[in-house]
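Researcher: Re-running this chain for the archive, since the previous output was lost when a drive failed. Same request as before.
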Amino acid sequence: MSQMFPPALLALADGTVFRGKGIGAAGSSVGEVVFNTALTGYQEILTDPSYTRQIVTLTYPHIGNVGVNREDCEAPKVYAAGLVIRDLPLVASNFRSEQTLDAYLKAENIVAIADIDTRKLTRILREKGAQAGCLMTGENLDAAAAISQARAFPGLAGMDLAKVVSVDTPYEWTEGEWRLGKGYVPQANPKFHVVAYDFGVKRNILRMLAERGCKLTVVPAQTPAKDVLALKPDGVFLSNGPGDPEPCDYAIAAIRELLDTKLPTFGICLGHQLMGLAAGGRTLKMKFGHHGANHPVKDLESGQVMITSQNHGFAVDPATLPANVKVTHVSLFDGSLQGMAWTDRPALCFQGHPEASPGPHDVSYLFDRFIGMMEHAKKN
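Model: Regenerated C-alpha cells:
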C-alpha cells in the first residue's frame, strides 16, 4: 500500500499525531473528529449533510470493499470534512459498484487517511470527547502545523450550519424507495401534501415519506412559517442537519408558529432538537455524540427495545421541557432523550434516524405515525 498512496497524518488538538497513508485528495482538512460504529454504509455516511465540518472515523476495519455507486448517495456530494479508516481493501467487489472508494474520494476532493490505529483513536475520543483534528496528505508533512490548525478550529458549538447546507429554492420530490432490478420507484397517487424543511435532509427520508403517499415540497431552512402555511400542507416535516441547533433562531421561530397552528409535525435529528427548542427546552453538547447503526433505544410506551441508526452531537435536555411535551424514547447507552411527543397537538420527533441508510429499520413505524396524524387531521 505504501507504494500506491502518499504519506498522511491526522493531528488532534490534544497533540496526538497518527501517521498513515493518504487515500483521498491531496491537501489538508480541519474539523471535529468523531467515530461511527456502523459496519456498513460508508457511502451514505460520507454523503450525509449532518457530517458537515466533521472528520469521520469508521471503527469497522475494512472500508471500501464494495466500492461506490451513484444510487446510494444521501446527497449530491460528500459533506464529511474527511475520512479516517483502518484498512482500504485493494479490490472492490459488488455487482452495483461503479467506482473504488479512493477514486471517489479523489473525485470529490475529500482528504482521507488509512492504515492508522482506529481503535486507539476511538479510545481517545471516548475518554476525552470529540475534539478538533487536522488531516494532511502529501510529501513534507508538518505535524506541528497540523496540530496548530486543529487547535484553531472553533468547534461546532454555536455554529449554524443548517442554512449553509440547505437548498436555495424549493423543489418537489417524487422518488420512492429502492427495488432490486428497478432502482428507485416513482411515486404514484399521493394522498398528502407535506412541506419538508431542508436543514441538510437525507434522500432516504424523502423516499420513505414519498413511499407512504406524501407529495413533498422541500423548502430552504430559512423559509418563514407563513410561506409554508400558504402552500396549504397536510403536514410539516423537519429534517436532520449539521451543527448546533441553538443558533438557528429562524427555524425555531418558524417551528413555534407552525406548532401553534396544530398542523401535524414530524422532526428527525436536528429537526427533533429544533422542536425541543421551539417548545421552550434547551439543548446541550454531548461528550462524543452518538454515531453508528447499533444503538439500543427504548420506546417508553410499548417497552420495546429497538436497534437504531444515530448521528448527532447535541441532545435535548429533558429536564427543561414543558408539561405538554412527554418523553417517548430514551437511549439505553446513556439514558439521553431520543423521542418526544406533544400531548395537546399532533407533533412528534425522534433524535435518531428512523430512515436508517445505513442501519436497521426498527423505528420506521414513526413515519407511519406521522401519516396517521395527517389522516386523523383530514377526517376532523
